[in-house]
Amino acid sequence: MVTTKHEQIIQHIISLDVGHKISVRQIAKQLNVSDGTAYRAIKDAENQGLVSTIERVGTIRIERKKKENFEKLTFAEVVNIIDGQVLGGSNGLHKTLSKFVIGAMQLEAMMRYTEAGSLLIVGNRIKAHELALNEGAAVLITGGFDTEGHIKKLADDKELPIISTSYDTFTVAAMINRAIYDQLIKKEIIFVGDIATTLEETSYLKTKDTVGKWYELNEKSGHSRFPIVDEKLRVIGMVSSKDIVGKDKNIPIDRVMSKKPLVVKSKTSLASVSHTMVWEGIEVVPVVDNSGILKGVVSRQDVLKALQQIQRQPQVGETIDDIVSRNLQFSADEEVYTTEVIPQMTNQLGTLSNGVFTALMTEASSRLLQKDRKADITIENITVYFNKPVQIESILTIKPTVLDAGRLYAKIDVEVFSENKLVGKGLIMAQLIHR
């Protein structure tokens, strides 16, 4: 298969040692491509987490993180997060930090917590800079201060970055912590590729197979829906039990299959594929690559199991939806949900934000359906009326009522009260995912 110039550059970057410096001109010359092509490929490599670009330092090859190590940042990423300036040790920017230590203590106490692979966040304390580097830790100097020449040389010799930022110590710690949380939140998002069966585990039929082959696979796997592939393993159709009912077992399978089937890719989110399955009423969806070649399948059972696992995950970094969910309490006596309006739920005026208002209605409705119907929901349509502003520290009472519910959908009316006064209403149309 012919690879493009862009793909060749990406492969070249992957082959470079971690810590190697990269430039547009160097790539263009080595691979005989234009500066524009080299620039676009380097930017793509940065998006893929292969390189990091730092002002006044350049672009360096960094180690692409494994899925389980998202919470670790490289020193190069720290520089970009805190708008830092690298004073020395730039050859170590590709390394990851295991923890950071705030140096707001006596020198001896500080060194007890400072270990190899950590990052010491400290002000203009030259002795602390030196001791940290000798312990194998990188240094982040706050307040915009510089350091002495022999410290910079020590950083270069040990290949441990020493970085300066204009922010204060605690602001910097908060920024790094937020970046780690942001990555942990992203880590929680499950993609189809994380739960799908592999090609080796997947049952499929070829265009030359007969209806009889469907019966064989059905008996062997217990499934009733299979992808149909051509000689290059590209998905061209799907066949299910309703397609073969009453058909002669010797008929070629491509004469009874459904053409142009729905497919998903490995990077399709779990939420998206669950919506597709419910909306279309299908049990199994083929997983394909960019060329349409079969890579596996994902079933409704796989999706439901993953959704339930997500709900049991421990909290790591909170989104607004997490905050809404955590603070929503069920009152069994009155069959309502209550919550307090905390600062994170408000807008710049100090009143409940419209987005959080909507999230509260959605979460209460979801819990009601989980309790009464043993079903999860995906929202299809929501109409919200905001009657009056809700102040910070107000106690809200949310009352969802199922107006109508079938096998695949539900219509829910939601009323929101504060101090017994109606402050908002909503009408939700949702698809049901039965457990």
From TrEMBL:
<protein>
    <recommendedName>
        <fullName>CBS domain-containing protein</fullName>
    </recommendedName>
</protein>
<feature type="domain" description="CBS">
    <location>
        <begin position="196"/>
        <end position="255"/>
    </location>
</feature>
<feature type="domain" description="CBS">
    <location>
        <begin position="257"/>
        <end position="315"/>
    </location>
</feature>
<keyword id="KW-0238">DNA-binding</keyword>
<keyword id="KW-0129">CBS domain</keyword>
<dbReference type="InterPro" id="IPR046342">
    <property type="entry name" value="CBS_dom_sf"/>
</dbReference>
<dbReference type="InterPro" id="IPR036390">
    <property type="entry name" value="WH_DNA-bd_sf"/>
</dbReference>
<keyword id="KW-0804">Transcription</keyword>
<dbReference type="InterPro" id="IPR036388">
    <property type="entry name" value="WH-like_DNA-bd_sf"/>
</dbReference>
<dbReference type="InterPro" id="IPR000644">
    <property type="entry name" value="CBS_dom"/>
</dbReference>
<keyword id="KW-0805">Transcription regulation</keyword>
<dbReference type="Pfam" id="PF07085">
    <property type="entry name" value="DRTGG"/>
</dbReference>
<dbReference type="InterPro" id="IPR029069">
    <property type="entry name" value="HotDog_dom_sf"/>
</dbReference>
<dbReference type="Pfam" id="PF00571">
    <property type="entry name" value="CBS"/>
</dbReference>
<dbReference type="InterPro" id="IPR006683">
    <property type="entry name" value="Thioestr_dom"/>
</dbReference>
<dbReference type="Pfam" id="PF03061">
    <property type="entry name" value="4HBT"/>
</dbReference>
<dbReference type="Pfam" id="PF00392">
    <property type="entry name" value="GntR"/>
</dbReference>
<dbReference type="InterPro" id="IPR010766">
    <property type="entry name" value="DRTGG"/>
</dbReference>
<dbReference type="InterPro" id="IPR028979">
    <property type="entry name" value="Ser_kin/Pase_Hpr-like_N_sf"/>
</dbReference>
<dbReference type="InterPro" id="IPR000524">
    <property type="entry name" value="Tscrpt_reg_HTH_GntR"/>
</dbReference>
<dbReference type="InterPro" id="IPR051257">
    <property type="entry name" value="Diverse_CBS-Domain"/>
</dbReference>
